[in-house]
Each structure stands twice: as C-alpha cells, then as structure tokens.
Amino acid sequence: MEAKKIALAIVTFALVVCIAIIILRAPTNTVSPEVQQVDAVVVKDGIQYVTILARGGYTPKISSAEANVPTKLIMQTDGTYDCSLSLVIQAIGYQKILPSTGEEVIDLGTLTSGQSIRGVCSMGMYSFVINFT
Amino acid sequence: MKDYTFHVSGTHCASCKIFIEDTLTEQTGISHVCVDLKHKTVSLETTLDETQGELAERLTATIQQNGYALSVLEPVEKKQGDGVVWLAVPIGLAVLALFFLFQKSGILNIGLGGTVTPVTALIIGLIASVSSCLAVVGGLVLSLSATISRDSQNDTRPILLFHGGRLLGFAVLGGILGVIGGALSIGLTATTLLGLLASVVMILLGLNLVGIFEKSTLTLPLGIFKFFRSMEHTTLAPFLLGVGTFFLPCGFTQAMQVTALSSGSFLSGLLIMGAFAIGTLPMLALLSFGSASFAQSKHAPLFFKSAGVVVLGLGSFAFLAGLAGLGIINPLITL
Looking at beta carbons, which residues of chain A come within 8 Å of B250? Predict the structure, then answer.
C-alpha cells in the first residue's frame, strides 16, 4: 500500500477512537457554571423530593435516593427549548412535554433498594438516572 | 427483429436501470430493453434498420443528459472511483467528531426567558438547526439531497419544493395548532417511531452513497427507487416530505409546537411555527443546495462518499437514540 493510504488509515483509526470516547464516555455529573446548584435530594414531611434541572440535557445525570421512602421527582426548567423538554419515564409510563419555565412534580411512588428510575428525552439523546439504595 | 447488446456507462443505482429501460422502451421500434447493472450492458430488440453503431449514437442522445451513454465497444474504465474511499472515510469521521464535540460542549445551552415571539422563535430555529436535531432532520435532508443530486441533473426543483413544503407546512400546521390545540398531536411514541424510520432511511441512503450497493450483488428493494423517481420527477412528493418533517422528533420543534398550541389563535400559531421554520432554513438550505452544487464539481465522488459516511454516522446515532427513547435499550450515548 502506498504511504498515503497508510497515513489515511491511521488517521481514520484515530478518529474512530476519538468518536467512541466522545459519545460512549459514561455520563459524569459535571455541572456548567451557569446552572444553579440544586439540592438534589431532600426529605420533607416524610416525602423524598429529587430535583433535576432540564436544560440542554438533564442535571444531575446521576442521582442517589433512599429506598422505601415515598418519592416525588421535581423537574425544573428555566427557559428550556430543547429536547430535554419532552420527557419520557418508561418505568411509570410518563410522557410529557414540560413547560419551558417552571417546575413539574411527578410522583414516583416508593421504590426498593436496587431499583432505578431512568428518564429520557423523546429523541433519546439526553437521559438521567436515579438510583435507589 | 434484431437483438443487440450495448455497453452502458454512468449507471450506479437501480433507479438508473428503471430510467434507462423506460426511456429506451418509449422509442419507436425498440422493445424488450433490459439493463444488466452488474455487467454494465443493455440488451434490446429492435425492428429498425439502423446499424448497431448508429443505434448506439441515437439512443445515447436520449439518455445523455442524465449522464448515461451506450457504446458498441467497452469504454475505458475511469480509475477515479476506488481511491477516493480512503480519503472520504476520515473526512466523514472528522465531520462527525466535530459534530458530537460541538453538541457535548454545551455551547448551545442558553436559556431563553420570557414569552416566545416570532422573533425568538426564529432564533430558536437557528439554534435548533445546529443542535442535536441536526442529526435527524439535517441528516435526512443531506442524505436525500445528496442521493438526488448524484442521480439526476435537475435536482434544484425537488429541493426547492421540499423547502417550500416545510415552510408552508410548518406555518399552516402551526396555525391549526393555535386554533384546535392538541388534536393534531400524534403523540410522543409515534414521533419517536417516525424518527426511527427516518434513521433507517438515512442508514440505507448512507450505504448507497458510500457505494456498498455497487460493489456487491445486493441492491436496495425496487420500491425505494420508485420512491426516488417520484421525488425527482413529481411535484407532490418532495413537497409532502417537507411538510412531513413537522412530525420528526426534534425537541425544539416539539417545544415550539406546545407554544403555538397555547398561543390561542391561528395567526400567532402560524407566525411562531413559520418563524421557527425560517430559522432552520439557512442550515438545511446549505446542506441541500450545497449537495446540489458539489454534484457538478470534479470533487463529486469524494463529496458523495464523505457525505455517505456522515449520513451513516448520524443515522446510526439517531437509530440508537430512537431505540433509547422508546425504552427498548438503555441509552448508550448521552450528549
């Protein structure tokens, strides 16, 4: 093979690896500076509230909550106009387009240890998970 | 009745076969036209008296402007085709890498407060057209325009009709949303399914653009190419497709639809969705007319193969995302 083809093959391989790293990297909870810090999990009057901000994706992407406590999910939006608005939570059959600014309270019920609730935007590109322990 | 077999050049897809067979059969005195794509030959029966050479010349004139030619002797094969793949793949991958980096960077994460006016709707459209929605809607537009530009000379008309359909469709459907509200909604599941269908189309078109179907005996089902004939030659098909993009999964579109719904009047719904569609126009026009202009340049094979790689990448991404959206698989990819 000519040198040019070898070089191109190497570049191709490097790009494939780059793309794999970019899109397959496990989600981390990096919060961008403009996003307000939210108290993710709060228990009040015996009910556990998990707050997740929906804007350009979901933050935090991974939450931990207590099992065996009645739980409600608060979806916060703030001038959101992207896919994170059309939320699908398969486990409870929830499908709704959230208001672009505001708070939406969703009843998750009481979950046992080891269960988790996953929320996905309708395009499937943004997601969050709440792990119960 | 005489039987002749000619060599044919310029054929690279099944729709070429249909076109050549139809056009030649229309000529008086010609029948039983059969194109063999694999061996690049055309055989036919004729009651005419012309010599094979004269026939080749005359018949070529009927199909020449679409890039085909009949000859008696085997034409010299242009070697350009194969070497290009090695360059096209890294180019396509680089474009995909940039796209995903851009999405992940969060640059687009700007909130827009306040009520939505037609002006804000237009800005949202601009943002949407470079966001992750580009993977589905943009990818579909690119794959369709590239395929149409590669196969036919008059590609401007279907592209114009497509954009017209999209703009008019968004405006009118937006107005209807403003008046009768949720009755138009097809539901989130149906929308996600539509997105999955679009991603499958993109994957097939991507494979076609890259040239997999030429090299093997695999061909796409004939139904798909009849669809392309209608896209290239009729008025209604591209227009309706443009209108149909209203229902593709794109969070921005859905958010705008909800806003139009709650706006309460035909006019405000029309203005909001119309402005949004205009906002998405620059990017989509770039993709579609850009394909059309590349088709004429000497770099055409490189462009089409690179576009094919990009379309394959976006299509696969949209396919996996769609499956995740339906809950069939856990999301493998999170932006």
Answer: 83, 123
What is the ipTM score, two decimals? 0.73
Mean pLDDT of B146-163: 79
What span, in angstroms and rounded, lies between the C-alpha atoms of B290 and B25?
A: 34
CA B254 to each of CA A108, B74, B128, B271, B309: distance values in angstroms, whole numbers, following the listed order: 25, 55, 11, 16, 29
Q: Which residue of A has its CA nearest to B134?
A: A123
Among residues B242, B246, B265, which one has the least CA distance to residue B256? B246
* Per-residue pLDDT, A31: 47
A32 neighbors B106 (Cβ within 8 angstroms): yes
Residues of chain B with Cβ-Cβ distance to A125 below 8 Å are 132, 135, 321, 331, 333-335
Which of these, A46, A27, A55, lies nearest to A118 by C-alpha position?
Answer: A27
Q: What would the pLDDT profile of B75-122 be if each residue is shown by its tens digit?
A: 655 544 556 777 888 888 888 888 888 877 766 666 665 667 888 888
Written as six digits, the tokens of A92 are 């409870």
CB contact under 8 A, A126 and B131: no
B298: number of Cβ within 10 Å: 8
Report helix, strand and coil shares of chain A as percent, to nearest 5: 20, 40, 40
pLDDT reported for residue A13: 81
Are A83 and A125 in contact by the 8 Å Cβ rule? The answer is yes
Query: Does residue B311 have a pLDDT over 70?
Result: yes
Amino acid at B244: G
Residue B14 pLDDT grade (very low, low, confident, very high; cuts 50, 70, 90): confident
**SS3 state at B163:** helix
Report CA B48 to chain centroid distance, whole Å.
40
- Are B192 and A123 in contact (CB < 8 Å)? yes
Task: Supply the pTM of this predicted model.
Answer: 0.71
Asked if pLDDT for residue B22 goes beyond 50, the answer is yes
What's the gap in Å between the CA of B101 and the closest CA on chain A?
Answer: 7
Report residue A68: phi and psi, to 5°: 60, 25
Q: Which of A:45-84 have CB within 8 Å of B?
A: 55-57, 61, 78-84
More confident residue, B289 or B15: B289
State how far residue B156 is from chain A, nearest Cα, in angstroms: 31
Residue numbers of B between 285 and 324 with CB closer than 8 Å to A: 313, 317-318, 320-324
More confident residue, B118 or A26: B118
**Whether the predicted pLDDT of B271 surpasses 70:** yes
Residues 11-50 of B with CB under 8 A from A: none
